[in-house]
Design brief:
Blueprint (H helix, E strand, L loop, with lengths): L6 H21 L11 E3 L6 E3 L23 E2 L14 E2 L4 E4 L6 E3 L2 H10 L21 E3 L6 E3 L3 H6 L3 E2 L15 E3 L4 E3 L27 E2 L6 E2 L12 H5 L2 H28 L1
Parallel strand pairs: 9-13
Antiparallel strand pairs: 1-2, 3-4, 5-6, 7-8, 10-11, 10-12
Length: about 280
């Protein structure tokens, strides 16, 4: 018969399970919820911007810096601090230990934050896909596209996501055959049928989206998205037909002007013949 668990044992198991859930939640945070990408308002000029050590507009120092790794503003007296402060809590510049070269935000003087943030900074290589600007070249926050998962700055996020669901093809058919594309990859901008989205010898997990056979990015069902095909303003996909060209405004004006000229010339010729007779 198994031994009965004591109250202390049950409490320890609940605490370890809670800590595991907290760690899993921190690993799955969105980019907009990361401490290094928090929204900050400057104390001096009032400009709202990304969490930074110094204001992007006036370069003033912030009174209450936020750690880019753990997100705290106040360091408690019992923690893994590199600079010891026994018996007192620290805020402001007494709490910080470094400035991240990637996200330009303060990092607290905790041993774990100083040793891990440089390698785990989520804004590493965070260049906007539309304007190619990095974190140091604009003052706004960084976001990811909901479809292609690309980095976007605060100025171009809505414009990009509005035009992201466009396939780089003339139709919504599979790239390998002529059947309807049931799954689409928003990074490659191509569609696949149910047969060609799967690769031979690859083990797929249940209840997870199929990865793209070309780039490995997760695919989405085409029926759940508002997809459109690529259009051109020139050539055979310009959208204008012969009937539209025939009844266009410029063509009708040209036609009427030519008819009026021909009528005038005929009347002049008829009148001259009558006078001569």
């Amino acid at each position: 018969m198994p031994k009965k668990k004591t109250g202390a044992r049950k409490k320890a198991e609940k605490q370890s399970e809670r800590q595991r859930q907290i760690r899993a939640t921190k690993d799955n945070l969105n980019l907009a919820e990361r401490p290094c990408n928090f929204s900050m308002e400057c104390d001096k000029c009032g400009v709202r911007q990304k969490n930074r050590a110094f204001c992007y507009s006036c370069s003033s120092l912030q009174k209450l810096p936020v750690c880019a790794q753990c997100g705290k503003q106040k360091c408690m007296k019992m923690s893994d601090c590199v600079i010891k402060h026994p018996g007192q809590h620290t805020t402001g510049l007494q709490m910080v230990g470094a400035i991240c070269d990637i996200c330009e935000a303060w990092v607290c003087h905790g041993r774990k934050c100083l040793s891990t943030h440089g390698c785990e900074c989520p804004l590493l290589d965070a260049d906007c896909k539309e304007c190619d600007r990095g974190v140091w070249e604009h003052g706004g926050r960084i976001f990811r596209c909901a479809y292609c998962n690309a980095f976007l700055c605060e100025d171009d996020q809505f414009e990009h996501q509005a035009s992201c669901q466009v396939l780089e093809s003339e139709n919504n058919k599979c790239a390998s055959c002529n059947r309807h594309g049931q799954y689409s990859c928003m990074q490659c901008k191509i569609s696949f049928c149910e047969e060609h989205v799967k690769r031979k010898g690859f083990i797929y997990k249940r209840n997870e989206p199929f990865p793209c056979p070309k780039c490995g990015f997760k695919t989405s069902e085409s029926k759940a998205m508002s997809l459109s095909i690529k259009r051109h303003d020139y050539g055979r996909q310009s959208g204008a037909t012969e009937r539209d060209a025939y009844y266009s405004e410029e063509y009708m004006q040209h036609k009427f002007s030519s008819l009026e000229c021909s009528d005038d010339s005929e009347s002049d010729g008829f009148g001259s013949d009558v006078d001569e007779n």
